[in-house]
Amino acid sequence: MSKQRKQTPKAAPSRVPKKATEIAPVSLEVPAFFYNTLLQSVLIFAFAFLLYANTLTHGFVLDDSIVITSNMFTEKGVDGISGILSKDTFFGYFKVEGKAELVMGGRYRPLTLVLFAFIFQLFGENSFVFHLFTVLLFATTCVVLYRTLLLLFRPSMDEGYAILLSWMSAVLFAAHPIHTEVVANIKGCDEIATLLGSLGALYFSIKAFDSQKLIWGLAAGISFFLACLSKENAATFLVVIPLALWFFRHTGSRTGGGSGEHILRTALPVFVAFIVFFILRGTILHWQFGNPPMELMNNPFLKIEGNQWVKFAPAEKLATIFYTLLKYVQLLFVPHPLTHDYYPNQIGLKTFTNPVVLLSLVVYGWMTWYALNGIRKRDPIRFGILYYLLTLSIVSNVVFPVGTAMGERFAFMPSVGFCIAAAALLLRFAKGNSLQATLGIFGFVMLLFSLKTITRNPAWASNEKLFFTDVGTSVNSAKIHNACGGVLFDKAAKETDAAKQKDYCRQGIVHLDKAVSLHPNYKDAYISRGGCHYLLGQYDEAIADYRQAVRLSEDDVKPKTGLAIALRDGGKFYGEQKHDLATALEYLSESWRYNTKDAETARLLGVANGVQGKHADAIMWFSKAVELAPGNARYLFDLGTAYYASGDPVKGEEYRGKALAINPDIVKEMTGGTGKKQ
Q: Residues 113-129: pLDDT tens digits?
């Protein structure tokens, strides 16, 4: 990075460029404090770290399970690195081929998983260490942003202006609350590493351009290759880097000429690095780019027509995208309210008659016009806008589907452009003695942003805290209502207090009803709701939910298992409590079809047949129960009873004897001490 500049008692403007292509909106007398590059780097690092220090005690949240806690490669430590490098990013979690189809084109982002494997090797499943690594990585990225902007801006701007613009941009970036999703969630390291590597590539490219030394070009290529291995949206820097050189290394700058040929030659190592990555990615993922899945949770641009999911019309999709694009602008200026969940139908289908969509067209049309119309002025505001548009494009759903309508994490890289433009716009009004007032305004905004960041972080402490915090914002998201319902069901399943268990189930059903109303084919919601109904003893409702889940995913074992249990206990309920043997037999027979290894279902079928005097059938079912659980005294005793009832006391005594040998108190247990079987 650039060397530390000596402090000066009072910074005078180095020069005021006079050419139209040079950038110096104002000559600023900047306090010497800001000229100490090393000191500012340390302060920016400390500021960024302290903002997220309250995340260090958090646990693993959301997709952390995919990349850490439930990833078979990460859990192997260094021994799993070969698997990480040779498979789709999702493979270590799903442990089967084909899950790349969940998102269009698959994902190959091995770098952060490799880093996680090293951490796991040294510290195990220690969330503190993983969070510490994430916060340190973010703080480092803020410093690299500051130093890169200094290197980029200084030659073509007034010295004081360049220093203050770089500092303000980096501090604004560090404090912006929209970044909480990335930094407070360990999985967000892929976003951080991507930006860090991309900024490194820009920094080294500038050094290569200025010095004409090959070593800097090689460093740029390596840094960019690592950025691509973190996440594919690094590809936008293939345009950002030449654009930055064209803006701030143009003819008339202190470094001399900046022809297109010179710029492209400087950027060549970055292009080569991307080609190598692209070939590697294609080879690992077998060049399968795929199509958007027809499943709402992985493709938000679907709607129901005639009880079937169909794609949005092109105009509907584009209108919906523009709606989200304006939402990004709003969150950059006013980051409230924040949420991790923008899944369907939090942002539903929009049309071009929607006033927000029309406003978005105006805003983005103006930004594009303003940036391009005056592009030869090469000012930082226009550069910031172009940077924002370029880096946002790849995650906007315009280039290709990203699996959700939007996400605050997608604004991480584009927000750099916003920070540059916002800082430059604020400095434009700093004239003469007004610099102190400008810094005061900036400081007030930083105070508000910092408070928002610090108070937002605790929501990421755990899945339960996050879900129940954000459900109040993402009120129309099927996914978060399903998540809340699932958490409540899990708590109910572990609860031993009957009253609390029922309360959890009733609360869960409220959320799961909402999830199903928003997404009628939401298999996971039906499974969790079926579980809640089951624990409440509402067997018919549980059976209906599990049946629907089975219809939605016939190859999934989980809903079939739940259905078998609900049918078994529902059959027992109808037989013993309702004395409805027809329904009991119907449920028990269906349960057996789903699970022919359940001894209790076989026993209950034996009881149902025995009550009806079908002794041969009763013996058959009790025999199956004994076969499946030969050491169960109750099953042996029931089989003996069935033989007695069929007129075979010898067999009856034989099996009762076996039961008594295993459990001498079996008769007392089964009769409740009355001598009569219950």
A: 999 999 999 999 999 99
CA-based nearest residue to 157, from 24, 246, 257: 24
Select from 560, 595, 630 the last residue of a domain. 595
Give strand pairing partners of 20: none
What is the rounded average pLDDT of the residues 491-517? 97
**Alpha-carbon distance 606 to 614, whole Å?**
9
Can you tell me the distance from the alpha carbon of 515 to that of 524, in angstroms, rounded to the nearest whole number? 10
- DSSP for 109-140, written as a single string: -HHHHHHHHHHHHHH-S-HHHHHHHHHHHHHH
State which amino acid sits at residue 292: P
The tokens for 349 are: 């289908």
pLDDT 10s digits, 384-438: 999 999 999 999 999 888 989 999 999 999 999 999 999 999 998 776 558 888 9
pLDDT at 19 over 80: no
Cβ atoms of 149 and 380 within 8 Å: the answer is no
Rounded Cα distance between 441 and 435, Å, is: 10
- Paired strand residues for 302: 311
Tell whether 573 is covered by a domain: yes
Q: Compute the distance between CA of residue 596 and CA of residue 560 in angstroms, rounded to an integer.
A: 12
> What is the CATH classification number for the domain harbouring 677?
1.25.40.10
CA 277 – CA 274 distance, rounded (Å):
5
pLDDT at position 131: 98
What ranges in 100-236 are assigned the alpha helix state H? 110-123, 127-153, 159-175, 180-184, 189-211, 214-230
**Residue 152 is encoded by which pair of tokens?**
């980029």
The helix/strand/coil state of 626 is: helix
Clarify whether residues 56 and 179 are in a common domain.
yes
Full 3-state SS string of 580-638: CHHHHHHHHHHHHHHCCCCHHHHHHHHHHHHHCCCHHHHHHHHHHHHHHCCCCHHHHHH
Rg of the chain (C-alpha set): 32
**Gap between the terminal Cα atoms of the chain:** 83
Which of 595, 629, 654 is the last residue in one of the domains?
A: 595
pLDDT tens-digit profile of 38-68?
999 999 999 999 999 999 999 999 999 999 9
Helices 189-211, 214-230: crossing angle, 10 deg rounding: 170
